[in-house]
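User: Hello, can you help with two protein structures?

Assistant: Certainly.
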Amino acid sequence: MSAHTVDTELRLIGKLILDGELHCKTGLHIGAGKGSLEIGGADNPVVKDAFGRPYVPGSSLRGKLRSLLEQSSGLAVPSELVYLSKRKGQEVRIHQSDRPDDEICLLFGRNPGRMERVSGGEPLETACTSPARLTVYDAPLDPDSITPQMRENLDDELTEVKSENAIDRITSQANPRTLERVPAGARFRVRFILDVLCEEDKALTGRLVEAMRLLEDDALGGGGSRGSGRVQFSNLTLKWRSRNFYANGAPEQELLSGGDLDALQALVREEGFAAKLSE
């Protein structure tokens, strides 16, 4: 856990701006829901922007990073989970606590109030509000990553359709379904912004990098256990914009350019990294 306490004072020191690319190593499916189902189209279409181009919603990427950190920290257990929704068949359980040093709640934010615990017992009552330090933006598709050669083999201009079968174990009847995916080789442009509101926040950068590394060995979107959603981060650029950047037009500081996650993690683990993040 972090060094945050209930007495930690919050005042903007600056912002870390992390830009990069998200490469699809296998087809990627982030669903749009069946409201956009078209005659002859896939059963499960991908989410698209107003121009019909697939994108990765910031909420999907952020939620996956949070989930992976909760699991790796041992917080995805009933005693640490609360209900966001108890609607039958649509239950949503996430980690939340009232501990001021809880890095998950510090990174992703925490609202005060009364929440029902998954494990039963007394509901979680917290007046400890934590503003989210991490912002994850929608990641647009780089159209140039879909090459003419790839387009020749796609089912649509920018996407493919993967056919799957569910087999009844008694009758052996096949129940086919189709899944629309962004093809392997596609790239999305990602942006993360980490607000540093106190000296203790500087250590949270390492938790973000940890979550990104976990994602590379997990899956993003649907169908991950069936081969979809393997991704990789590359061409990462990390910049520091101090409070004086916003108040007085001071120059930003480039800390990393064109690196991968190994280089980013090595940077944030350097002994003098926190000292670079000054006002």
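That covers the first. Now for the second protein you mentioned:
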Amino acid sequence: MYFIIIPIVLIVLMIILTSIRQIGEYERGLKFARGKYKCIMEPGWHVVWPIFESYRKVDIRVKVIDVPEQDAITKDNVTIKINAVIYYNVFDAKKAVLSVENYNYAVSQLAQTTMRNIVGTVTLDELLTERERISSSICDIVDKATDEWGVKIQNVELKDVSLPQEMQRVIAKVAEAEREKMAVITKASGEVEASKNLAEAAERLSAAPGALHLRTLSTINDVSSDQSNTIIFALPVEILRAFESSNASEVVKKITKKSE
């Protein structure tokens, strides 16, 4: 009798040991009994009886999908190539398995379609300058659609926007024209400031007797350091006025009378 009981016990132990399944902390398991959904298997060890039961693991960690480069046309009829990255995770393992056949593929296809649709509603300038807003719009639309699949979209980031060579040259010309415009405006502003400073300096020099003469002498001293320069001395009006207000004018008059 023992020869019958021992093999049976060993067979039962082998069945139990082979029926033990481990679910990791980052996973959830779905148990099926005779093909029907039974329960969610939390992290730990679980017994799944062969033949009668089966299970499927679902990874609930954040996953990354690289959306392939897509051809799209903007609102202002510019053909571009655009790609993106999607970050998502499964928050309901039951829906992810029972509601959609392959949620990874479904999320990727939905993101591609949504990205092309959103790009078609904005202009090229908006696409280049408002990437964050457009990414948020794509994320919101995809997230609402994937709630029924038990998938949560964490973030969508536009990676690259490729423009045709002709459009790149046009944008470069626009940028060059803008910089030239800024240079002209800056130069004009500098000339206005310089004219104001010159006007103020002229007022101060005219208000102080002899100031213009001293400034002239200082300038001549600076220029005279180079012997190759030819200096044309301009006699300031202030010097003539200084002669008028001093005895020098009387001396000049006496000299002219004697010569007569």
